[in-house]
């Protein structure tokens, strides 16, 4: 069997509910396995670890107890096709208590950080034109949710000046 890798997140929360929510948002996502606390433990039957994929990437939520908390040090970055998909995911991840941050980052209701990037922004930033990169980056720093129409307007304006 080949070696596999996954990101493990030590959390306190409803692991199975979290994994079901995350996998419901993005195609090529699924709950793979739910391991439960043994029958002789005080948490018998509750999820101990949940393996799942989001857009094909593997993750595991592990029950960490009340003394652990997720932080923005680790986030899941989703690069999506268009602004409509950014908007849809942004709304879904913020629902029921999520918090927006800066530069496309947000924290969902469970405390997990996400960054939502429109693929077009990544493509624009791949330019060798340093001045355009600087303008795009400066615009990103002013945003909460990334707005592709703003980046496109910057690129069009930059091209018109060239």
From TrEMBL:
It comes from the Bacteria. Residues 6-117 form the PhnB-like domain. This is PhnB-like domain-containing protein. It comes from Agromyces aureus.
């Amino acid at each position: 069997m080949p070696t596999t890798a996954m990101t493990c997140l030590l959390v306190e929360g409803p692991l199975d509910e979290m994994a079901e929510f995350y996998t419901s948002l993005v195609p090529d996502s699924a709950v793979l396995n739910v391991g439960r606390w043994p029958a002789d433990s005080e948490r018998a039957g509750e999820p101990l670890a949940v393996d799942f994929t989001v857009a094909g990437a593997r993750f595991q939520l592990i029950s960490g107890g009340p003394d652990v908390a997720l932080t923005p040090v680790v986030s899941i970055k989703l690069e999506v096709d268009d602004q409509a998909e950014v908007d849809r995911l942004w709304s879904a991840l913020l629902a029921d208590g999520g918090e927006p941050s800066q530069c496309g980052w947000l924290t969902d209701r469970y405390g997990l950080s996400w960054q939502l990037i429109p693929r077009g922004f990544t493509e624009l930033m791949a330019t060798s034109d340093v001045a355009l990169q600087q303008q795009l980056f400066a615009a990103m720093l002013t945003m909460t949710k990334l707005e592709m129409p703003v980046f496109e307007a910057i690129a069009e304006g930059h091209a018109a000046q060239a």
